[in-house]
Each structure stands twice: as C-alpha cells, then as structure tokens.
Amino acid sequence: MGEIIKPFQHKGFYLIATNHLFFANLVKEVQSGSVVVMDWEGLNGVNTGRVMLSDSYPVDSKPGTIHGFFCTQVGGNISHSKDFMESAKKEIGLWFQPEELVDYLELCSELDL
C-alpha cells in the first residue's frame, strides 16, 4: 500500500481520507482481500491521478506508473480512479462521511502553518 501512496505524496497531493474495508459478499475479485479507499486532493487531481495510474490494461500501462509497476493481468486491478470531478465527488460520498475528510487549508490555518 505504501508503494502506491508514495507517488501521490511525491507529486504534492494530500491524503484527505482513507478507510480499510472488507467485503464478504461481493464479487470474487474484491473478496480476494481487503480494499483501502483513499481520497486525494491536489492540483488538477483527477487528471493527474489518472496519468499517474495509467491504463487499466497491464499491457498498455506505461512504465513508471502505478499500473505499470504492479498490474500483471486484466481483472486484478490494483487501483481505481474517476474520470471527472463530479463522479469523483459522488464516489467519495459512498466511502466517506463528511467529517472523515480533512480540510488541509483549514488545518494549516489552525496550526499557523
């Protein structure tokens, strides 16, 4: 998990929420392990994040991307991203309550950073 998080941190993104979830009754792929959901915030986050992940098909994934490093077969997707901010906000609402999200600007202001 750390190897997937590290590139986003290096790119200057802020991890504003994360949850570790288990799904006992979903499709076989998801049942094979736990799922870590994350919400990242950063400049042009949706588009930049998709470039950092690369194509979902391992054969088409660019070297140096998360899928390029870790994906070996179709159907075992290691990560997921949204294509538009509107769809990202909708999905974030499925995984997180508003009080679970960190507001970095507010936090920095409170800490005088």
UniProtKB/TrEMBL annotation:
Domain named Nucleoside diphosphate kinase-like: residues: 1-103
InterPro entries reported for this sequence: NDK-like_dom, NDK-like_dom_sf, Nucleoside_diP_kinase
Annotated family: Belongs to the NDK family.
Enzyme type, top EC level: transferase
Protein name in the entry: nucleoside-diphosphate kinase
One Gene Ontology term of the molecular function aspect: nucleoside diphosphate kinase activity
Cofactor(s) needed: Mg(2+)
